[in-house]
Amino acid sequence: MTDTLEPATIDAPEPVPEPRIGTPTERTSWRVDIPGIRQADIRAVKWQLYLSLTGLALGVLMGALQASNRGDFILEEWFGRSIDLYDAVGLQSYYQGLTLHGVTLALVFTFTFANAFLSLTTMKGFGRPLVSAAARDASVTLAWIGVAMAGIAILANEATVLFTFYPPLQATSIFYVGAVLLVISTWLVLLNMLLTLRAWRADHPGERIPLLSYVSIMSYIMWFLASLGIAIEILVFVLPWLWGWTDTIDPQFTRILFWFTGHPIVYFWLLPIYVSWYMFLPKQVGGKLYSDGLTRMVFLAFLLLLPVGVHHQFTDPGIPFSSKTIQWVLTFAIFYPSVITLFSVVASLEAGGRARGGKGWLGWIWKLPWGDPAVSGQLLAGLGFMLGGISGLVNASYTINLTVHNTAFIVGHFHLTVGTAVALSIMAICYWLVPYLTGKALWGRQLAVAQGWLWILGVMFFSRGQMQGGIEGMPRRTNIAEAPYAEQFSDGNALESWRWADGLAAFGGTIMFISAVCFFVVILGTIFNRTQVSTVQRMPVVERPVHGVRDTWAILDQVWVWTLIAGLLSALVYGEVIFHYLPINDVSSGFRLW
Amino acid sequence: MHIDKYERWFMLATFIFLVIAAGALIVSVVGHHAALPEPAGRIDPDEVRTTPPFDQPGLRTAPDGSTELILIGQAWQWTPDEVTVAPGTEVTIKATSVDVVHGIRIPDTNANVMVIPGQISEIDVTFDDPGLYSLICHEYCGIGHHNMYMNIRVEES
Fold first, then answer.
1. In Å, how far is B23's CA from the nearest CA of chain A?
2. For site-directed labelling of A309, which of A114, A286, A410, B36 has its Cα 20 to 30 A away?
3. H or E stretch including B126?
4. Cis, peptide link before residue A17, omega less than 30° from 0
């Protein structure tokens, strides 16, 4: 295979889509590069994205409050007084703020970004809009209603159960119903993707599924299977118990169901970013994607390796040795697709850096377009992900998990993964996506570049602090500023180092918050920018891979076969857990302890 | 399907790395008896205070001569809230919850286990060095969660 690529098919002239997108004035005549797309399709994507960014805004505000809580002791020492920002913004407790932080960021921000971004990439891949306008609009509507319901429940202090809502803690029912509606909105996106796949196949008999659509749809099939655990938990166990149809619930079994979803929920956060890293970033740096087949296999691996949730429950008393061991081995296996991704993405970047004149082993790194905020943010996010991945291997490491389980170490870890690899990438993607969707030019480019650096700087301090605290036994999800045991430190005991841990986390968290403020300034500046684009808005999709689809096993395109295999594998692995667990031990009535 | 030569090496190196890491973990389990908690029985959370051994929470000498700490978790305290043991004692902690999910983490040790209503948690901890150890609830259990801990004093009696 030569290094010269064929002329880019993506940039070839396309049929003019009608009607045009944009406001009706002449000045704003611009369109996006998806044939046949209607204004309503763009509007749906935009409103999913706006919901996502609303979640991000609320979430980072809560993050700032937590940073102030961690840094409280510093204020006390330096100024002799502490401040209670929770009271100032009208929240009842640290834990109400923490629930809002978790729900808005782990569920709302990520889910609705996936809804927006992967709907768009599916349309781009197929070169046509999603076929069902009803499913499209229902998805947007249910997402907003669901988030509003859960949000009202949390703000009214009726659902201070954190985003894991472990029974027998019992929130008000609109919290759970809101969560269900949000999940249904994601299912509707999948339904629409599959209907579009069927329509596309009818028009293109015998053709291979376009790579961009393939990776988008596989991500959503993975999520659909994954979400069944939490769906069963809420619909079969929690709601009947809440509404008095059953008196009691099994706290251990509902945790098993929760974590069936709770691990692959991580893939659902991550895979939209993988779509960007594989399909967009190479184009943005002037590099190339090497392998169509390997890209498909990576997304397939995430679908197949769903059943690993028990590694979040290594210290649960009700799960036997056999289940913990089996899922530990499977957990090690999911290191693989991410290692392949590391190799592939770095290879794409290197190709870009060398094409831009980079020399030597590492010289290509400096030639990458660091001045483009849509690129630099993703590069820095990737850097964070390497550290996040390694710390994830620590968590997954069976007996080593005893040192870190439910400690601040986990918090340090996932602020590098979901909190940086995902969040910072989403912010960087927004720097091209918002102009693409609104027809407005990006406003404040330099501030946007600085924003990415601030975030990575902040998270380095934050995670460094949290990891140190965690290794020294500091619990996560705890109002440490008011914990009496934190005062029991003496020379040489673990608690002594918690102050450093808290100070670093407070400092880093504050920088992350400032970074997020910069992000919103840029995005609002862009949305209300008077400078509009007057050309076709092009999605920066990578050209034909070096090793194209002809090299790829045709069996990878058998979407239904793989869905079935993944379902059977999950049933088998979790069948083992449930077989050893049964009978159900429904012994708990509900508690409201806030 | 084409996979680049360097990429194959990279994948092989990762495989070897994971095998070594897994081997080290197996050694920790087999050679050093680092164990994850395993099921130790079920219990009705409403009947905890009348069900042996939880009817008498605290330190006791088990029939086999080992030292047991019988611990009841309830929002937001442990019963008992303080015990004293001699240095070098291996303590078997048996814990359960009468209400919501709690957890146990003792900094400066490897003790880490969830405490879930309906289940009995059991772990072994050895306290070698004298001093004050805090047994901390590490799962959110309501608005007073951060107040939930007990002290284990390790000193010569």
1. 11
2. A114
3. strand B121-127
4. no
> Residues of A with catalytic annotation?
263, 267, 413-415, 476-477
Q: B27: nearest CA in chain A?
A: A399
Residue numbers in B near A344 (CB within 8 A) = 7
Mutate to test the interface with A, among B10, B81, B105 (most CBs of A within 10 A): B105
Q: How far apart are CA A506 and CA A458, in angstroms?
A: 10
Of A475, A480, A593, nearest to B100 by CB-CB distance is A593
Q: How many residues does chain A have?
A: 594
Which H or E run contains B112? strand B112-115
Q: For residues A67 and A503, is the Cβ–Cβ distance under 8 A? A: no
Q: Is A398 left (phi over 0), alpha (psi -120 to 50) or beta?
A: left
Q: CB of A401 within 8 A of CB of A471?
A: no
Q: Across the interface, which of B18, B107, B141 has its CB nearest the CB of A332?
A: B18
Q: Return the biggest CA–CA distance within chain A.
A: 74
In angstroms, the CA A339 to CA B10 distance is 8
CB contact under 8 A, B4 and A405: no
Unique residue bearing structure tokens 């400092």: A507
Tens of each residue's pLDDT in chain A, 594 residues: 334 444 334 444 444 444 444 444 444 567 899 999 999 999 999 999 999 999 999 999 999 999 999 888 888 888 877 778 898 899 999 999 999 999 999 999 999 999 999 999 999 999 999 999 999 999 999 999 999 999 999 999 999 999 999 999 999 999 999 999 999 999 999 999 999 999 999 999 999 999 999 999 999 999 999 999 999 999 999 999 999 999 999 999 999 999 999 999 999 999 999 999 999 999 999 999 999 999 999 999 999 999 999 999 999 999 999 999 999 999 999 888 988 999 999 999 999 999 999 999 999 999 999 999 999 999 999 999 999 999 999 999 988 999 999 999 999 999 999 999 999 999 999 999 999 999 999 999 999 999 999 999 999 999 999 999 999 999 999 999 899 999 888 777 778 889 899 999 999 999 999 999 999 999 999 999 998 887 888 999 998 898 888 888 999 999 999 999 999 999 999 999 999 999 999 999 999 999
Q: Provide the 3-class DSSP secondary structure of residue B124.
A: strand
CB contact at 8 A, A185 and A143:
yes
Annotate B65-100 with b (16+ C-beta within 10 A) or e (fewer): eebbbbbbbbbbebbeeebebeeeeebbbbbbbbbb
Q: Which domains does chain A have, with CATH numbers?
A: 370-557 (1.20.210.10)
Residue A294: closest C-alpha in chain B: B3
Cα dist from A327 to A190, A260, A402, B18, B87, whole Å: 27, 11, 16, 15, 37
φ/ψ region of A511 (left if φ > 0, alpha if ψ in -120 to 50, else beta) reads alpha
Please, is A138 exposed, middle or buried when counting C-beta atoms within 10 Å of its C-beta (0-12, 13-18, 19+)?
Answer: middle
What residues of chain B, 125 to 144, have a C-beta less than 8 Å from chain A? 131-132, 134, 136-144
**CB atoms inside a 10 Å sphere around CB A563:** 16
Helix (H) or strand (E) holding A31: strand A31-32
Q: Compute the distance between CA of residue A450 and CA of residue B96 in angstroms, rounded to an integer.
A: 50
A566 to A562, A570, A571, B73: CA distances (angstroms): 6, 6, 9, 39
Q: Given A251, A473, A482, which is nearest B118 (Cβ)?
A: A251
Neighbours of A262 (CB within 10 A): 19
